[in-house]
Amino acid sequence: MTREGRLAGQTRTFTALGGKRVDRWAGVELALREDAAGTGPHFADPDVPCLQLYWLQAWLDDGTAVEIGTYQDDDGFGLHGHSSDKAYDDGRWNGIYRWRSFPELPTGSIDRVTVFPERHFLAEVHFRIGARRWRWSRANWRRRTRAR
After folding, report:
1. Number of helical (H) and strand (E) elements in the chain, helices listed first
2. Are 14 and 76 contacting, i.e. CB atoms less than 8 angstroms apart?
3. Helix H or strand E encompassing 146
4. Pairwise CA distance, residues 30 & 25, whole Å
C-alpha cells in the first residue's frame, strides 16, 4: 500500500466513527517517568495535563472496539486505527506500562471527527463527544492524549 493509500484508509477509519457511541475506553498507559527515588513509575503529574498511552481502545455501543495507536514509517510516525478484540489485560503489562480503563475520558455520541494530516501521516484526530473536545496525537514515538 502506498503512503497516500494508508493515509486515506486511516482517515476513513477515524471519520467513520462520527455518529457512533463510545461506551468506555481501555488500554495501556505508559508512565511519564520511570522509578523515581524508589517510589515506582509515575503515571500522573499535575504539570503534565495529558495521558501518555501505548494504545487505546474505544468500546462502542454495538459491542465492537477500535484500537488507536501509532506506527513508524521510514521518516516519521502516524496514527492508525483498526478493529480490536483485546478486551482484557493479558498480564504482560507491568513496570512503566499498565493496563487500565479510562473513566476520565468522555463517553457518548461522537458528534464530530476532524483529522489532521501532515505530509503522508495522520498527525492528529479530534473528537467532539457531547460538550467535550478530545484530541489524540502522535508525538515522536509516544502516544499522547489530552482530555479537555
Report:
1. 1, 9
2. no
3. strand 142-147
4. 15
- 31 neighbors 96 (Cβ within 8 angstroms): yes
Based on C-alpha coordinates, what's the Rg of the chain? 15
Give 61-68 contacts, CB < 8 A, sequence gap 24+.
61/20, 61/21, 61/22, 61/23, 62/20, 66/13, 66/17, 67/27, 68/125, 68/136, 68/143
Q: Cβ-count burial of 127 within 10 angstroms (0-12 exposed, 13-18 middle, 19+ buried)?
A: buried
CA count, 13 A, side-chain hemisphere, 134: 22
Q: Give the pLDDT mean for 59-86.
A: 87
Residues 3, 72: Cα–Cα separation, whole Å = 12
pTM listed for this prediction: 0.83
Residue 16's DSSP bridge partners are none
For residue 22, give the C-alpha cell: 463510545
Per-residue pLDDT tens over the stretch 9-37? 999 999 999 999 999 999 999 999 887 78
HSE at residue 89, side-chain half, CA atoms within 13 A, is: 13
What's the pLDDT at 50?
A: 82
